[in-house]
Automatic annotation (TrEMBL):
<keyword id="KW-0378">Hydrolase</keyword>
<dbReference type="InterPro" id="IPR008044">
    <property type="entry name" value="Phage_lysin"/>
</dbReference>
<keyword id="KW-0677">Repeat</keyword>
<dbReference type="Pfam" id="PF01473">
    <property type="entry name" value="Choline_bind_1"/>
</dbReference>
<feature type="region of interest" description="Disordered">
    <location>
        <begin position="41"/>
        <end position="80"/>
    </location>
</feature>
<feature type="signal peptide">
    <location>
        <begin position="1"/>
        <end position="30"/>
    </location>
</feature>
<keyword id="KW-0732">Signal</keyword>
<protein>
    <submittedName>
        <fullName>Lysin</fullName>
        <ecNumber>3.5.1.28</ecNumber>
    </submittedName>
</protein>
<dbReference type="GO" id="GO:0008745">
    <property type="term" value="F:N-acetylmuramoyl-L-alanine amidase activity"/>
</dbReference>
<dbReference type="Pfam" id="PF05382">
    <property type="entry name" value="Amidase_5"/>
</dbReference>
<feature type="domain" description="Bacteriophage lysin">
    <location>
        <begin position="692"/>
        <end position="842"/>
    </location>
</feature>
<dbReference type="InterPro" id="IPR018337">
    <property type="entry name" value="Cell_wall/Cho-bd_repeat"/>
</dbReference>
Length: 843
């Protein structure tokens, strides 16, 4: 059985023994001043009773304390096990030094006392056997520090180099005693040491009191400033005047070359004679004062009245440009300051005034204007601003007047040398315009909301003539203004749109009628073929729509979009006519269409329909076909087939019909059923969609003045209202694009554009992009462009500052003003240059 009480008792006894050891450490006093000081610190043996060490020892035995006691109350035999207790490294009186990492037991850092020596005045035992001792220390400077941790204390074990009664000399480079007093007057003196004192910093260790041979007592001389007495003869040292010249000796030898004496630089020639005046050294030219011979710094007037400047750091004579507070001066190769003259330093030219200061500002000489910048350098082959005007100074530094060509540009300076800016200039009958940066304008210039002018590659304004730029042609009248609207020349009608561009190879609406202008910009009359279509323009150049056209005995019918009709046309509930592939109406003739044979009378009306093969339909049940791109609506009018154009459908049933041979019931991929679809509205091959950029832009042009902005109506103009994204979606579809499932907003329209072969060419490039007609621009970062946070429109020309057409809220929703065409850069700037994407139709 384990006797728990016995174990506890043993523990108590052990604790008591340890306590006895920790509480009975001895102390030893050490003398501070000795005849020949040694501060090696021995360890001592600590016992249970107080004691004082009588003799130093360099050996440190361990202390072992054996103690046994008996407790009668518990009748227990005390443990006789010895306990090893570590000793303090130092004792009272020990000479020590604090390290830089020394600190007290409460954590106070003592780095400010690092390397200082002192005496241990108290040894403090640890509370626990595994802790170190702490000490109270009195530093040699009198400071007392308590509870210094043992690990920050080291033994001061230095031995003085000299003892009392030693004969010594004070070194010739001694300067100050430990208290900072100057002792240079005693250099080289000999004497006898009368007192040795330990210095409180390891960097010196000791200082000494010396009685000099002349009886003077010097109280404190640092150890490093002493040397043992040599009894050598005294040499000539210091300054010496000899036969009217000055020399300087060190250890009996005359100094040759540069030497710093008492904080001043001097120079001595090869014969030892002190230099004075302008002196060339091996590495620089300097000036020594004519009286003192000390090296000069700063300005120096020579005897011949010339001003020189010598560097304030090393005294070298200055050549070239010197900047000083408030100005610039130039010294020549002869070190003389230049005055009342020009000076060229490197590639810079200066003018120095009568007081030697470099000139700054404008200066007129010999009828020529010169200019010196804030850096005092004359401006040459460069610009400068003067009194709010920009001037140019040529290679000679003279201000320009008249025309100046540089690179591919031109600029102009008036009689006062001022560059002309933001203004016209006329020479004879030729006009120029100088831009805000002073360059002559070249190309199209929009000078007001309604004014456009053009300057050729020679910078001349075009008047009474055409000009073609960036693929567009303009006409400029006698005032140089681009015209807008119609112009008849040599019996030909021309038209210039709201952007002043002559319409060529394109349509234009004029007074409610559509016209087409050919390659030369002349309005068409008569028949025009394009692609697989035909259109017709009357004698007034107006496109004929929703009307018959007769040429001789041939009839055509022009549809609502102006295209000539081709195929069967149901013009009333009972009236059916046919137009061949040449668009001509068939009269007095039979035509086989599918499985039907139609006969058309002299008026072009079908008067009989017979089945050629009534039992055979083109498409069988369960056949997969596509709804054609030009499908209009099913017979019963219940479905608008336009939105299903291009979709793949499955034939559900086939029904004979006298008007189109066969009617079909079809099923869309989503399960929607459509009945009574004409056979001609189906095809076997996949439908290819392709957007026509001209038709896309014309969609907007034709709706100017007709739409009102709203995000809450039809959005695509069917009710007279529209918004930006709804308009673009509808315009793309009407220009040959794919059907849409809904009128996408600016968030969702990205995918629709890609489905229609548009490619993303720019994603918010901070430097912009090279725009092209037909580029579609979306504002608003995707994910943050819902509602009014986004916008979309189309670039309509190829100018550097292009036009941008869109359905927008610029007019705050005024009726009929939603479609606006503006300059893109100004529009973007006004809206804070929003985050943008640019899509371009793939070629």
């Amino acid at each position: 059985m384990v006797n728990k009480k016995l174990r506890v008792k043993e523990l108590l006894v052990s604790t008591i023994i340890i306590g006895g050891v920790l509480g009975t450490m001895s102390t030893v006093n050490a003398a501070e001043n000795t005849a020949h000081v040694s501060t090696q610190v021995p360890s001592t043996i600590a016992s249970g009773s107080s004691g004082t060490s009588q003799a130093p020892s360099t050996k440190t035995p361990s202390s072992t304390i054996n103690e046994s006691r008996q407790n009668d109350n518990y009748n227990v035999t005390p443990s006789t096990k010895s306990i090893q207790v570590h000793q303090a490294k130092f004792k009272t009186g020990s000479v020590i030094t604090l390290t830089n990492s020394a600190k007290t037991s409460n954590g106070t850092q003592l780095q400010n006392y690092g390397d200082q020596s002192g005496v241990v005045t108290n040894v403090i035992s640890p509370k626990h056997a595994n802790l170190d001792y702490t000490y109270d220390v009195k530093l040699d400077n009198g400071m007392v520090i308590s509870n210094v941790l043992e690990q920050g204390v080291v033994s001061f074990d230095k031995i003085s180099a000299f003892s009392i009664n030693n004969r010594v000399e004070i070194k010739k480079d001694a300067t100050h005693d430990p208290d900072g007093k100057n002792i240079s007057a005693y250099r080289g003196f000999s004497g006898t040491i009368t007192k040795v004192t330990r210095y409180h910093q390891l960097s010196s260790n000791f200082y000494y009191q010396i009685t000099l041979d002349n009886g003077v007592v010097v109280a404190k001389i640092l150890e490093q400033d002493l040397q043992r007495y040599t009894n050598k003869p005294v040499h000539k040292d210091g300054w010496s005047s000899e036969n009217g010249v000055t020399k300087y000796y060190v250890n009996g030898a005359a100094i040759i070359g540069e030497k710093k004496i008492d904080g001043h630089w001097y120079n001595f020639a090869s014969n030892g004679v002190q230099s004075k005046g302008l002196t060339t050294l091996a590495h620089k030219t300097v000036f020594y004062d004519m009286k003192s011979g000390q090296m000069a710094y700063g300005y120096v007037w020579t005897n011949n009245g010339t001003l020189m400047f010598f560097d304030t750091s090393d005294g070298h004579a200055l050549t070239g440009v010197r900047h000083y507070s408030g100005g610039v001066e130039v010294c020549g190769a002869d070190f003389k300051q230049i005055r009342n003259n020009y000076a060229t330093v490197g590639s810079s030219r200066y003018y120095l005034t009568g007081n030697g200061d470099a000139f700054k500002g404008s200066r007129e000489t010999n009828g020529q204007l010169e200019f010196y910048g804030t850096n005092y350098v004359q401006v040459r082959n460069n610009y400068t601003w003067l009194n709010g005007s920009l001037m140019f100074f040529d290679g000679n530094g003279h201000a320009m007047t008249g025309v100046r060509y540089y690179g591919l540009n031109m600029e102009y300076y008036d009689a006062n040398h001022k560059q002309i800016r933001n203004s016209y200039m006329r020479t004879g009958n030729t006009y120029y315009y100088l831009k805000a940066n002073g360059d002559a304008f070249k190309g199209l210039r929009q000078y007001s909301a309604t004014g456009l002018e053009y300057y050729g590659s020679d910078f001349k304004q075009v008047r009474h003539n055409y000009a073609t730029t960036n693929g567009s042609t303009y006409y400029f009248n006698g005032d140089g203004d681009a015209i807008k609207g119609t112009r008849i020349v040599n019996g030909k009608l021309e038209y210039y749109d709201n952007n002043y561009k002559q319409v060529r190879n394109n349509y234009a609406w004029l007074d409610g009628s559509l016209m087409f202008f050919d390659d030369n910009g002349h309005a068409m009359t008569g028949v025009r073929y394009y692609g697989s279509n035909m259109e017709c323009y009357d004698a007034n150049h107006k496109q004929i729509r929703n009307s018959y056209v007769k040429t001789g005995n041939t009839y055509y019918y022009m549809k609502a979009n102006g295209d000539a009709f081709k195929g069967l046309r149901q013009y009333s509930t009972t009236g059916l006519e046919y137009y061949g592939s040449d668009f001509k109406q068939v009269r007095n003739q039979s035509v086989t269409i599918g499985d039907k044979i139609y006969h058309f009378n002299k008026d072009g009306d079908a008067d009989s329909i017979q089945s050629k093969n009534p039992t055979t339909a083109r498409y069988a049940k369960n056949t997969s076909v596509y709804i054609t791109n030009n499908a209009d609506q099913s017979v019963n009018g219940n479905h608008n087939l336009k939105k299903y154009a291009g979709q793949n459908v499955k034939i559900i049933s086939v029904t004979a019909n006298k008007q189109s041979n066969w009617l079909y019931t079809v099923e869309l991929n989503n399960g929607t059923i459509i009945k009574d679809v004409f056979e001609q509205d189906l095809q076997e091959s996949k439908v290819n969609f392709k957007v026509n950029t001209n038709k896309l832009i014309n969609w907007f042009e034709s709706r100017k003045g007709k739409l009102t902005y709203s995000m809450y109506g039809s959005r695509n103009g069917t009710d007279g209202t529209a918004d930006c994204s709804g308009s673009v979606v509808q315009a793309i579809r009407d220009a040959g694009g794919t059907p849409f499932t809904w009128l996408y907003n600016t968030e969702a329209i990205h995918a629709y554009l890609k489905d229609n072969s548009y490619q993303l060419i720019d994603n918010n490039d901070p430097y912009g992009w090279l725009s092209r007609r037909g580029d579609i621009v979306i504002w608003g970062q995707q994910g943050h462009s819902d509602g009014a946070a986004g916008h979309i429109g189309i670039i309509t020309n190829n100018l550097d500052n292009p036009l941008f057409i869109s359905t927008c809220y610029i007019t705050q929703g005024q009726k009929g003003t939603a479609v606006q065409e503006v300059q893109y850069n100004q529009f973007a700037s006004k809206n804070g240059y929003p985050y943008y994407y640019v899509y371009r139709l793939a070629q």
